[in-house]
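WARN no homologs supplied; continuing
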Amino acid sequence: MAASTALRFHSWYTADTRPSGWEYSSSESRRKLKHLPDIATPHTSNGLYDQIWRDLKRRGKEPGTKSFDAVLRNRISKQEYALIDELSRFHQSESSLDRTWQGLVKAGKSPGTPPFERLLERKEPRREVVRNENKNWGEATLKAKKSLAEAQIKFEEAAKNLKDAEQSIAQMMEQSQESHDAKRQLEVMEETLETAAEIELQELLKDDDYQPLAICDRNADVGTVEDFATMQKYAQCPDITKDKPILLLEGTKVHGRTGNNLLEFLHAIQEARDMDISLGVMRQSWAMNVLLKMWMAIDSDDWQAHFERTFCVKIFNHVKELEGWNVVDQDTKELFWYKSEIPLEDYVARQEYSLRALFRNYNTGEGKDASGVPVQDMCSGINAIFGEDHRSSAMYSVIHSRSLEGEPGYRMLRILSKRSGCDRAAALEMKPDYIKAILKPLGMMKHPIVFITDGQNPVILERLLSDPDLGPMIRTVPEEACWIGGDLTLAIMSNAFIGNPASTFTGFIAKSRLALGFGHNYLFRARDKDSGEWKTVCGDHCIFDKSIMNVMS
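OK structure emitted
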């Protein structure tokens, strides 16, 4: 009833459709004012009460009468309803509560009345909330200040690091420019040296006594200018004085066979260069016993000076000559296990220079060795098979079969197989299909195939001789001409070489061939998994590479 009355009452004063000329009558006013208590709800706006107030005055009613009191009473009740509704919201701000207090005072309510008591009940929790909010805000502010301070420190550190990085970059750019300039200067110097070397070479070529490198009338395939430039680079020997330690090769005890001993001598030359020390050799030592049988035979009065210049060493003829020298002693096993740490490219160049130096001075049957015994001719093997008249033009291949005492040989080859990818047994067994897979593509099946061996496994030669394709082409060195130096030269000067990478003798042959400019070295072979055909799995450089060959490099 109250809601419907309120709606009708509201429509009387607000609707645009109110009948024109409508006026209050006393009975109607009393009837409508009678319902004012029912109308006074939170849903009735104060604007409606104001309209009723103005209308009462317009109709001649005076303030203080029942009608005005009813309107005022109900208007205040409306305010109280609004206050109660407003006070029920705890998220209300402090200033809003203060305005509510002032509104109650203006409405004629006195402190101590229920509205004021209810207001105070709401203000106290609100103050507690504010205090907590202030406390939290204070803590948050301190935390924020602390974080800001830390961020400031980090920012300053980052700024410093950035500045340092900028300085480093600037220094690097400056160094890069200097490096570039130095590199360019080095290139200019190298170009100048190459030009000078070529001019000097041309002068040498005019000399009738100058001959390009050739062994047993078979020319080495080394570029003349390149070979001469390499000689200039490595042939300059530093002074050997007592001020420097000297690595001395002495004694007659050796580690392994000829292949090992040759490798130990090359390692000694390399170690002396790497360590910036001198190299000395006793006249009666394992090194002289091995070398002079094949190279540098004693055939003239200036032999010692020539040997020293060739390998940048000092020869000691008697122990008394060592007085005052700082001698570094190493036996052949220690030399065998030496591994140089210089880049592979430099290592190959230095080793090849030493190998070429040996073959510039190979023995031809003239002179004596360290024991005074006449030396043999390194060309004896080639001469025995092809004759001196045809040795320069002979086309042939060489198979070096080295069994390495059976199972130890297989074990060594398995190790190399893991490093290089080569077959685990083929280079030891030298079966016909393995040999033919190499020689057929080269067109070498119609030329002699020379077989050199340590003689430990005769089955290998018998199997090759029984093959209908290979058998007729197999050649062996006559017994009277068969010796290490002759076999070595025969293999090195061949048109194609097949060897066992687990053998240091094979390794020396392959390195010497590369030093003399010969390709077609077949050491690291394996079957292709897809086609089943044999292929080379590790290039020529592998024989020098310590990551493949370890100490045999």
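Confidence is low (pLDDT under 50) at residues 1-44, 87-92.
OK
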